[in-house]
Amino acid sequence: MAFLTKKRVMQFIREPQAMDLYPSDCGQQIFAFLKKYTPSTELPEKLIGAVVPHAAWKYSGKVAARTLHTLSERSSPDICVLLGADHIGLKKHTLLPDGTWKTPLGSLPIASELASALYSALPKILSNDMSAHELEHSLEVISPMIAYFWPKLSILPIIIVPNANALEIGNALVQLLKASGKTAIFVASTDLTHYGRFYGNAHAGTGEKALDWVQHNDKKMIECICNVKATEILKEAAENQNACGAGALTTLCAIAKAHEIQKGYLIEYTTSHGNEHPNFFQSGVGYAGVVF
């Protein structure tokens, strides 16, 4: 039985929780991120999805903005399915069933019909815990960009736990959208390697050697993503700790495979070290933007 009814009184309203995630002048900042950026002419004419990072904009905003801009120029969706990382230790994949997601650049209505259909299709592996979305930042960071590039779009936010059921969610989404006749884009949110003592991962020391290790570790995950290795991402992330949103990546790659997509395209890669240009590398996080 679906959990949504017309008599439902309480609706989720996701208020902006910016803190230090993004600036108050979001639109101007996105415009600045896109200066001197032109998407490659070698990309496919039609794109269906993207991988974007979710750190504060001062670190990864440029990568996210350029990746989503590229996707927006090659898509015309009715719905955006947002696949978030699980930083809070959920036991189930958790979707947002209805309501409104507010951003500094406008409100995004929840695609409640698709949410209800997905929950009905996968009730044993999905929950609709609204409070989980108040605590998780991985979709909050990119929500103003979604409103900027697709101001009239409805969204379906789902926090994806890193387990094998992530594949099932991807396949179910493809089937439900096909039956509905609506078009969608899919955006997976993840950062890559977290390196340094603060993250409990400093085995390569500091300096150039450590930075090289981080970049090599990130490259392994980026290759998994770009080669659409949906069944290998969880193992890669577990072994090398190079994606905090491995569940979201798995779902997105399952969707890409269902669309017979064989390749993802790297738009940009950087690290927080590359952003701030410290004199000596001690810690940093990797960020990549990929489109399908």
UniProtKB/TrEMBL annotation:
Pfam families in the cross-refs: Memo
CDD domains the UniProt entry points to: MEMO_like
InterPro entries reported in the protein's UniProt record: MEMO1_fam
Superkingdom, natural source: Bacteria
The family this protein is said to belong to: Belongs to the MEMO1 family.
Annotated protein name in UniProt: AmmeMemoRadiSam system protein B
Organism: Chloroherpeton thalassium (strain ATCC 35110 / GB-78)
Classification of source organism: Bacteria, Pseudomonadati, Chlorobiota, Chlorobiia, Chlorobiales
